[in-house]
Amino acid sequence: MPHLKANGISIWYESYGDGEPLLMLMGLGGGSSMWWQQVAFFSPEYQVITYDSRGVGQSDKPDMPYSMRILAEDAAGLVHKLGIRSAHVYGVSMGGMVAQELALRYPELVATLILGATTCGGAHAVTASHEIVERLFSIMTLPAKEAIQVSTSATFSHAFVEQHPEEIRQWLTKGAESPPSAIGFKRQTEAAAGFDTYERLPLIKVPTLVLAGTCDQLIPPENSGILASRIPNAELMLFEGAGHGYLWEAEEQANHAVRDFLKRLPIEAKKR
Prior knowledge:
Rossmann fold
């Protein structure tokens, strides 16, 4: 798939299928390759668009301050360059923060909003334990084997790691296809730390679905409750026993929930 110049950087993106556009935004340090299961599920009915955000994979990795505003401008620039007037937007973790910012700054581009395992940030957010945060942010400085163990244990529930080694192996393999740079990981982390939409959430007017695992250690599920309570008419769905990586732990349940939501809310042809 090609690179595209938007917002002053080169962005690597991939597009699959036809139909209503569905833009997917991955979390901190994650690239387009991490959406492989959702691409397979949604592309028979939708035009699924994934991309490597700045600092990750094959997109540019400028060493400069990042913010959610800049990351949202990247996404908006990509959508505009692709000639898309309005899209379904699905963001997870940090990608969910970018998706919130996109919906607030470019409401005309967002037809529906799906926020997975994410937070409004700021003083109202429910934070992970100090131990989990320290372990996550040490990943880029740890030896590879130890970094993999930390990332896996923070992303998935213990039961899933124990019972599904093949799924974990595939997740690690896909993650290695579009890794973050050390600079990109640092800059994305700084952007996430400065993020806060709590006061602005009532301004989101598009239909919104909020998803989370009940055993999420990185972004506790209480954050999804805050989002659903602040965004007008938002729907909330929790996946019992799943961790931060609910996309993989509750794959079938989550994919069907998103598809059912999208089917109820088609994009008007004139807005595509």
